[in-house]
């Protein structure tokens, strides 16, 4: 039995892309495909590291032109002020249009109700879907990665959503080679995930390599926190400790920056991106397991939210 | 035939495993094929677990569920298959429904694993996983040997030209680590691979449940001298490493960038730079094969015009040379009216565009394919209308022979001839996996109906 590999080795190409270059090239290809094939793409931009990386890739994909689509932020009203500030500076620097869908608005208008646990992440779905309909967006870029969760591991790079924004995991289009099929009917849209194949560590290494700016929360800082569900929660207007919870000042950083009411911090001495890379490489807990209370609600929490139109 | 002959045995790659050189480490994509009964989920779980790719909270969840279900009696056994069961329906029914992607890395490489379920719609799932794979692992239950299913999996792998095939002979512990059983299976495999004309097969005796020869070398198979599964995955060449230096250059144009009036603010801030871009026209795309340097002669499709490359950029970085699979922006010496769907190729290498195309189809839709249907075909960055001229036959997956057929049904593999509304410069799949592949799409609801590969020897002129 002949060995195919050895016979071709002599004329093998000297060109070899590193992991990060391979992932970057794949992501840029996906972003360009979506911009070329869809009428009105938009990027979900939260100021979190994953959406920051997607925006950075989009800027690279169309250089020297500017990013040819607007960004959409679903603001829970519980965002860290540092993140909102970062969001506005970034949008300004790149000359982009920012669309904000406000959960607070929906609560004020009596359309959505505050949950007993105070978490607003599950409330984002309706404002998101309304904003997509209103903006007539037919492709919505997101920074979701398949390594985040077992349900996301089955997500396509280009993923069809029906008029209700629903994801049907049992009936997905097969995704073949690098040929993406984004055809859809009126009312349907697609979610596009250019960094599907990146891991948390890839993201951090890329941020380090490219010198990408992030909200300061990602680096270790002193903060008043208290312990709940095995996580450090920040003391803030929407995340007050119960009487039996002790507030202390600790050196912490965030691995994800979502809703203040459900995002926990981890103790850390990482004061630079290089420190974070080392810390993430040595970490023994998954990113969402360590810091996201909303995924702990049930084993299938993410699957349920995705089915109803979450990103 | 001995185990050593059929296995790779060498660690070819010279990539240094240095902590500081992490970024230089390459990417390797592989897929697994087989059913729950073969222990596929357990094998994947074992690979992740023993390569230390499972984090504490994931392991705790597995331990909790294993205990609840009484897995392994009272000894606190871990049902590693639980690591990969993603969706609720899958956990409830104990089956995997859809391809799931897993990520792990070792000092040598980063891996993307496409975990393809074997039971439901196995063709669809296998094609999805194998289309981009550098290697496919086909599982065999040592107690049952080579089955019809094995033959089918190997057929799909051969048709899709996956460069490396690993046969994991699992549950070797259940046949008392018998060399005779393994050798018999090697014999059966040799027959099939001869019949299917497959090469580059590596067979390994493993036990996913116990962990033999997955990551750690087994103490029970001293008759096997070859690499463990992980060692093999770390050393086999990725498809881009197999590219020949003289593969012809191809760039399917995704988008033509004319940023005048919409320059990035950082660019617009510098009047000299902005002025230099007044006539800028960048052809954006991902190189599908070969390499290109500034000054190289190229030809264009459509039109056949010849020109030279005057600039290559990867984002804001000008480079002298670029190669597959880099995403680039090219500038050309002459201005042409090129749009999305155009192809820029090394001069003199473009295949004659065809408007009658013969293809091998992997039919993925419940609605059957019959002659006369009007569909859409997407290849590279071109989408065009097609009419199905004829169904030429259906593959018998046991023999790979083509039997007569007048339609293709879901999970069938067959041949059809297609008449295209516009000629496209599609390569032979055997020469180039990226530029020889296509999709067939339903013109109304947009469903992906078939994965297609172009088999040039069967083309004919109008």
Give a quick precis of the structure.
The complex is a heterodimer of chains A (311) and B (462). Chain A is of the alpha/beta class and 311 residues long.
Named at the architecture level, the CATH assignment of the largest domain in chain A is: 3-Layer(aba) Sandwich
The percent of residues in helical segments of chain A reads 25-40%
CATH superfamily of the largest domain in chain A: HUPs
How many E strands of chain B? 25
What order do the strands of the largest sheet of chain A run in, or round the barrel if closed?
A: 3-2-1-4-6-5
- Name the shape of chain A in a single word: globular
Helix content of chain B: 10-25%
Kindly describe this structure:
The complex is a heterodimer of chains A (311) and B (462). Chain A is an alpha/beta fold. Chain A has two domains: 18-201 and 303-307, HUPs (Rossmann fold, 3-Layer(aba) Sandwich); 215-295, no CATH class. Chain A is built from ten helices and ten strands. Residues 1-13 of chain A have low confidence and may be disordered. Chain B has three domains: 3-235, P-loop containing nucleotide triphosphate hydrolases (Rossmann fold), CATH 3.40.50.300; 250-346, Translation factors (Elongation Factor Tu (Ef-tu), domain 3, Beta Barrel); 354-458, Translation factors (Elongation Factor Tu (Ef-tu), domain 3), CATH 2.40.30.10. The radius of gyration of chain B is 25 Å and the shape is globular. The model of chain B is unreliable at 1-22 (pLDDT under 50). Chains A and B meet through helix 1, helix 2, helix 3 and helix 7 of A and helix 3, helix 4, strand 2, helix 5 and helix 9 of B.
């Amino acid at each position: 039995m002949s060995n195919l590999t050895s016979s071709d080795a002599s004329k093998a190409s000297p060109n070899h892309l590193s992991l990060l270059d391979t992932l970057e090239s794949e992501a840029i290809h996906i972003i360009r495909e979506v911009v070329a094939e869809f009428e009105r793409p938009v990027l979900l931009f939260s100021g979190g590291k994953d959406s920051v990386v997607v925006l950075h890739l989009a800027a690279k994909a169309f250089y020297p032109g500017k990013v040819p689509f607007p960004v959409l932020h679903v603001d829970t009203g519980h965002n860290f002020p540092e993140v909102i500030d970062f969001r506005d500076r970034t949008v300004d620097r790149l000359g982009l249009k920012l669309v904000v869908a406000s959960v607070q608005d929906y609560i004020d208008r009596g359309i959505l109700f505050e949950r007993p646990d105070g978490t607003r992440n599950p409330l984002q779905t309706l404002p998101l879907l309304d904003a997509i309909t209103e903006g007539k967006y037919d492709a919505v870029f997101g920074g979701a990665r398949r390594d985040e969760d077992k349900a996301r591991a089955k997500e396509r790079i280009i993923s069809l959503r029906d008029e209700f924004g629903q994801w049907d995991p049992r009936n997905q289009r097969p995704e073949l080679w690098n040929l993406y099929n984004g055809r859809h009917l009126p009312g349907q849209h697609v979610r596009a995930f250019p960094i599907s194949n990146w891991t948390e560590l890839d993201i951090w290494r890329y941020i380090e390599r490219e010198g990408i700016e992030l909200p300061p929360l990602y680096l270790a800082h002193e903060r008043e926190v208290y312990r709940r569900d095995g996580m450090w929660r920040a003391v803030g207007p929407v995340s007050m400790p119960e009487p039996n919870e002790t507030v202390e000042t600790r050196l912490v950083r965030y691995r994800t920056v979502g809703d203040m009411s459900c995002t926990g911090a981890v103790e850390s001495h990482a004061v630079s991106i290089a420190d974070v890379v080392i810390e993430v490489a040595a970490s023994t807990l998954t990113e969402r397991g360590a810091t996201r209370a909303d995924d702990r609600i049930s084993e299938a929490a993410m699957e349920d939210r995705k089915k109803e139109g979450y990103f | 035939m001995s185990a050593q002959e059929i296995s790779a045995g060498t660690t070819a790659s010279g990539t240094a495993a240095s902590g500081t050189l992490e970024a230089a480490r390459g990417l390797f994509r592989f897929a697994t094929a087989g059913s729950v009964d073969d222990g596929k989920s357990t094998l994947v779980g074992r690979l992740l677990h023993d390569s230390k790719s499972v984090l504490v909270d994931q392991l705790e969840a597995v331990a909790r569920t294993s205990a609840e279900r009484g897995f392994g009696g009272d000894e606190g056994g871990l049902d590693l298959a639980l690591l990969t069961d993603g969706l609720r329906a899958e956990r409830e029914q104990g089956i995997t429904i859809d391809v799931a992607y897993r990520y792990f890395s070792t000092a040598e490489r980063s891996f993307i694993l496409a975990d393809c379920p074997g039971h439901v719609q196995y063709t669809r799932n296998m094609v999805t996983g194998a289309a981009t794979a550098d290697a496919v692992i086909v599982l065999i239950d040592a107690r049952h040997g080579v089955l019809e299913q094995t033959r089918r999996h190997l057929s799909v792998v051969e048709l899709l030209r996956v460069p490396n095939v690993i046969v994991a002979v699992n549950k070797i512990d259940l046949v008392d680590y018998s060399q005779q059983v393994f050798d018999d299976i090697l014999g059966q495999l040799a027959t099939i691979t001869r019949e299917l004309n497959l090469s580059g097969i590596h067979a390994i005796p493993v036990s996913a449940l116990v962990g033999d020869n997955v990551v750690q070398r087994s103490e029970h198979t001293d008759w096997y001298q070859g690499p463990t599964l992980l060692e093999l995955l770390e050393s086999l060449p990725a498809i881009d490493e197999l590219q020949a230096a003289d593969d012809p250059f191809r760039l399917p144009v995704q988008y033509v960038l004319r940023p005048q009036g919409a320059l990035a603010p950082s660019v617009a801030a510098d009047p000299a730079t902005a002025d230099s871009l007044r006539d800028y026209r960048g052809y954006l795309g991902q190189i599908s094969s070969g390499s290109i340097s500034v000054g190289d002669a190229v030809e264009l499709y459509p039109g056949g015009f010849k020109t030279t490359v005057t600039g290559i950029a990867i984002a804001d970085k000008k480079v002298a040379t670029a190669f597959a699979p880099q995403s680039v922006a090219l500038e050309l010496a002459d201005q042409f009216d090129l749009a999305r769907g155009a192809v820029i190729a090394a001069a003199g290498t473009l295949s004659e565009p065809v408007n009658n195309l013969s293809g091998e189809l992997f039919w993925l839709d419940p609605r059957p394919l019959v002659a006369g249907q009007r569909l859409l075909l997407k290849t590279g960055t071109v989408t065009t209308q097609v009419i199905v001229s004829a169904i030429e036959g259906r593959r018998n997956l046991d023999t790979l022979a083509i039997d007569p057929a007048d339609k293709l049904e879901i999970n069938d593999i067959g041949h059809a001839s297609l008449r295209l509304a516009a000629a496209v410069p599609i390569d032979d799949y055997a020469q180039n996996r990226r530029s020889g592949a296509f999709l067939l799409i339903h013109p109304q609801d947009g469903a992906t109906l078939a994965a297609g590969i172009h088999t040039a020897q069967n083309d004919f002129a109008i």
